[in-house]
Design a protein that fits this description.
Elements lengths: L1 H47 L4 E8 L5 E5 L4 E6 L13 E4 L5 E5 L6 H4 L2 E3 L13 H16 L1 H7 L6 E5 L6 H11 L3 E6 H6 L5 H14 L3 E6 L14 H19 L6 E7 L15 E6 L5 H11 L11 H7 L5 H18 L6 H14 L8 H5 L16
Parallel strand pairs: 3-5, 7-10, 7-11, 8-9, 9-10
Antiparallel strand pairs: 1-2, 1-4, 2-3, 4-5, 6-8
Helix pairs in contact: 3-4, 3-5, 7-8, 9-10, 9-11, 11-12
Bound molecules: adenosine-5'-triphosphate.
Length: about 400
């Protein structure tokens, strides 16, 4: 009997142990089900709740309210819910208003607006004319046509002269058009707004005209500003036939651009600089007086220009004593500024591969050959250079054959 009662006691303990474990399991399960229930309740709430109203903050008032513009309606003066941190409300912030439109209840996350994405905005570009080799005449013209009217408009008013509304830079790629426009913005203390014509056509199909409008709006907001329209030929080519919808869309974009250009004051604080490699195909409407009426040719650099560009791009480089930039400028006839930049970079890499901390003339010669030959433009024959011992001065010239 005692033995049996012991056995019963053991069985009972096991049973209690089992029940306790089961209780713990069920409690964990209940907690999990509660979490799931909460999730579903929230989901149902989301599905049943009426939509909030989106708005953009225009200003926060000293009395703790805010002025907002709802995306469709008028400007509203609204309250700010206590759950919203007023410090996060700056002009331009997207917010959600409650359904009655009376209170900001949420700050919406920043989003990539297609209009803003279409432009690169540099508040304070840092390039100056010193960073641009050659192009003295072009710099002078830009100074008079853009920098002076932006920085000293009174001078023009006193003299009664009207500066050009728009300037068109034209010439082969890689010769410094973008660089010039950036420097002009920097030297006028202006915001630089960069848009690319071909992107209006390929990336933002159907949005071209609206983006043009937004670009000018943004420029006025960030004035003084320079709008730089690269590859303007993509939206302003002569019209042969505007049959297809794509061509009509390009046409609408151009009309919007012309309307914006006609609409602003030449002495105001927004200027437009456009660039193209194909001036021959531009619609003459664009070049009419009062629009892009100052044309500036940006040619490939001559020897003096190439030397300056070599100097600029090697400014921060450790050069071996044998490096002769004059010679490099001489043998790179036809090279653009972008080519010279590529040559300097490549020479740097050549030195790196050799494990040297100084860039030598032979690094440069290899780079010249690689960069210029890659462009299938055999400007220079450098093989003899490497066959002979390192030449210097004028004797080098005889080793070089311009083709
Ligand atoms: P694209 O028509 O292709 O836009 P672009 O004429 O606008 O060409 P940039 O973008 O200004 O050419 O030049 C490309 C790069 O080449 C520049 O970032 C710069 O490093 C170098 N470069 C071109 N021209 C010069 C120059 N005159 N002085 C110094 N660097 C130059």
């Amino acid at each position: 009997m005692p033995r049996d009662s012991y056995a019963d006691g053991d069985a009972l303990r096991d049973y209690i142990f089992h029940l306790e474990r089961r209780i713990r399991e069920l409690e964990a399960e209940r907690a999990e089900l509660r979490r799931e229930l909460r999730r579903y309740r929230m989901e149902v709430d989301k599905l049943l709740s009426p939509p909030l109203i989106e708005a953009v903050v225009l200003a926060v008032l000293p009395d703790g309210r805010a002025v907002v513009k709802s995306t469709t309606g008028p400007n509203l003066v609204v309250n700010i819910s206590s759950s919203v941190d007023p410090k996060k409300l700056t002009p331009g912030t997207y917010v959600a208003l409650n359904q009655r439109g009376s209170t900001i209840v949420e700050v919406l996350p920043e989003r990539e607006d297609p209009y803003v994405k279409a432009m690169e905005v540099i508040e304070k570009p840092r390039v100056t004319f010193e960073d641009i080799g050659g192009l003295e005449e072009q710099k002078r013209e830009l100074y008079e046509a853009v920098i002076l009217p932006l920085t000293k408009p009174q001078l023009f008013r006193d003299l009664g002269i009207e500066p050009p509304r728009g300037v068109l830079l034209y010439g082969p790629p890689g010769c410094g058009k973008t660089l010039l426009a950036k420097a002009v913005a920097a030297m006028s203390n202006a915001t630089f707004i960069h848009v690319v014509g071909s992107e209006f056509v390929h990336k933002y199909v159907g949005e071209g005209a609206r983006i043009v409008r937004e670009v000018f709006k943004m420029a006025r907001r960030k004035a003084p500003a320079i709008i730089f329209i690269d590859e303007i030929d993509a939206i302003a080519a002569k019209r042969i036939d505007i049959g297809t919808s794509g061509e009509r869309e390009v046409q609408r974009t151009l009309m919007q651009l012309l309307a914006e250009l006609d609409g602003f004051d030449p002495l105001g604080d927004v200027k437009v600089i456009a660039a193209t490699n194909r001036i021959d195909i531009l619609d003459p409407a664009l070049l009419r007086p009062g629009r892009f009426d100052r044309l500036i040719y940006v040619p490939p650099p001559d020897e003096k220009g190439r030397l300056e560009i070599f100097k600029i791009h090697t400014r921060r480089m450790k050069l071996a004593e044998d490096v002769d930039l004059h010679y490099l400028a001489r043998i790179t006839e036809g090279a653009t500024g972008a080519d010279i930049k590529a040559i300097v970079m490549e020479a740097g890499y050549n030195a790196l591969r050799r494990g040297s901390n100084k860039v030598s003339m032979s690094d440069f010669m290899k780079a010249v050959e690689k960069v210029l030959k890659k462009r299938r433009r055999p400007y220079v024959e450098t093989s003899e250079y490497f066959e002979n011992s390192m030449p210097t001065g004028s004797s080098v010239e005889s080793n070089v054959m311009h083709i």
